[in-house]
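Please check both lines for our workbook:

___
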Amino acid sequence: MCETDRLEPPGLSRRDMLGLLGAAGAGLAVTPALTGDPALAAASDLALDPKTQPADPGNYEAPTNLAVDSQAKDAAISWIDRHSDDIIGLNDRIWEFAEPSLAEWNSSWAEAQFLAANGFRIQWGAGGMPTAFVATFSNGTGKPVIGFSGEYDALPGLSQEKGKPQHSPLVYNHDPYAPSYGFGHGCGHNALGAAAAAAAVATAAAMRARNLDGTVKFFGSTAEEQLVGKSVSVKAGVYDGLDAFVDWHPASSNTTGWGSSNAMYSVAFHFLGTDGHGGSPLGTRATQDAVTAMAMLTEFLRESDQAPSSRMHYAIRETGKAPNVFPTLSSIWYFAREGSPARAKILMDKITKCAEAAAMATGTRLQHRLMAGVWNQLGNKRGAELMHANMLQVGPPTFAPADQAFGKALQRSNGAPETGFADKINELNPPAPVFLGGGSTDVADISWRVPTISMGTAHQPGGTKNHSWHHTATAASHAGHVTTLAAAKYLAATTVDLLTQPKIVAEMKDEFARRTAKIKWKSLLPDDYQLPLYEPPKWFLERTRQSWPPRGVTWPPKRVVSTETAPDLGPELPPSNLPPLD
């Protein structure tokens, strides 16, 4: 999960920040107060009290009495302590599998088996995706219903030896022309899934021990890195019926909040052309030229077409493999991020025009496909306050001296200040009054359907980033284990309070209703959206008792094949291009 970067310049008033950005004079839509953008406005504290400005971070004081000591909470935390080896084992197994989005066959199975062994009922194929599942435990009346999120996909090119602070890919693919690295958990999803599953099981154990009413649902989510899994499942109604949703993500600090994230559209562009030879290139519809031209054109958007909250990035996924072979198919994949769905669509529409222009200029044929679309996240202030209180109550992660030495070595290898892993709980502060953009997450779509709490722990040292080999190195290290177990305790403790304090759940729901009163969530995925699936191996289908293809999916999918012909170069020239003799 690519969580939002919280940019909160210290000591600046709201007016100062607008002036710094040039927004006051230029009319940039970077704050709900100026734009009236419903999705941005709902995520602002203006939605809670339209008569006031957003809370001043300097005057806000987080409540300290929300986390309640209870025997049920003690039972949940005690379960995590007693089963720490099992939790770490799950964490490390998923780290070793390092499977890509939509193909997490072993990882999803390991996660589901951990839950099933601890009394959860498993339903596979959530939202039509083979590696997505819902695990359920219910007790007593079954109310309230609390959801957990488990992710387990890895990232390409981020393979790294565990616990090693110098770049050393665990999987190295030798090719003298183009060496590459294997997949790695450079976003820490192995820990995300393991800690959330541990918290769900620990909560269920406490419910049994103290006879607490409620239902715990764990949602095994595929393809978060592609922003696919949860958005598809939310549209399909998989998350309906929840009273609250509790989420976390590995980070570089121990913190929670109720800020927003960027909405995002993901589109793959395919250019179709003709064959060609490097020695005789004339008359070729060159698809590699098309993706190069598109990339160049979109770079020109950055100066005058992107606000400070905007992000645009791409990867060329398919093109020529040898200098003298012109490919008939080249593909480039774009993310367009902005502070709201409407603004993200405007940016993606501009990117699409660049694709059309590139195709026109090169004489190639363009096909494009929507791969994903997610909203900006809707925070919940009361939920964040409850989580923060529990983080303080449980206490920060305790790192060994060797952990801190490892963290500093990682920072040194990245040229960052050598401060080690964060070993304190950050203060709880309101979101910055001006939204400056950042990451995106498909948890955002859940947050518009149910009150959602998000949290992060110091799973990597400051100065290193998500989606890096540095994070892969920590994700199965002792330091990573420490923060994974801490995250499990924060999640479980907060959930026990949700089960035993109906007043807080009611307050979260009331806040949610006020924030969403003037806006209705609608999936950014059209009704004819095509799931970007891979066919599962036979053993996976047999173990999970699924059939292939899922209902409503045509398999194999329609192929993307060039049928282009060479371009017209005009009539042939006469010899030496001389006029005929009279």
About this structure: Confidence is low (pLDDT under 50) at residues 1-34. The two ends are 77 Å apart (CA to CA). The chain is about 35% helix and 15% strand.
